[in-house]
Design goal:
It is a single chain. The chain has five helices and no strands. The chain has a domain at 22-106. Residues 91-95, 111-116 and 121-130 have low confidence and may be disordered. α2 (40-55) packs antiparallel against α3. The chain has helices at residues 7-36, 40-55, 65-77, 92-101, 118-127. 61% of the residues lie in helices and 0% in strands. The chain is mainly α.
């Protein structure tokens, strides 16, 4: 019994992933440009507004999430980040929201000024604080 690898489907999915990654990189660059143009006071205000909106997620039934998600998206477009959320990135709910809505800016640099990847976070948890 010989199994055929679905090469055509693989190449299609690969192209879709590359396209999605390119789109994400463009969005991140736009967000970073907006955020970098803000002064520290504006950044802090936006991050606190983001935190306040984000904290509403725990008290709203899933049918009422859309207005909050829209508000979070608008704040991100203005340059907000999840930095004001305590222990950001440790709670699975926060990680999922972060992945869907907002780049996480912990004001630390990874390699080549990139956001640390999943593997980096896993290693950091196992190693403990530096």
């Amino acid at each position: 019994m010989e199994l055929n690898f679905p090469t055509e489907l693989f190449l299609q999915i690969k192209q879709e992933l590359l396209s999605a990654r390119n789109d994400l990189e463009k969005e991140k660059a736009i967000w970073a440009g907006v955020r970098n143009a803000l002064d520290n006071t504006q950044v802090n205000v936006l991050d606190e507004q983001f935190k306040a909106e984000f904290e509403k997620l725990g008290n709203v039934p899933s049918t009422g999430l859309q207005p909050i998600l829209q508000s979070l998206r608008e704040l991100v477009q203005q340059g907000a980040a999840a930095t004001a959320i305590e222990n950001a990135g440790e709670d699975s709910r926060e990680i999922e929201i972060e992945r869907e809505i907002v780049p996480f800016d912990d004001r630390r640099e990874g390699r080549d000024r990139e956001r640390p990847g999943r593997e980096d976070w896993r290693l950091a948890r196992h190693r403990g604080p530096a």
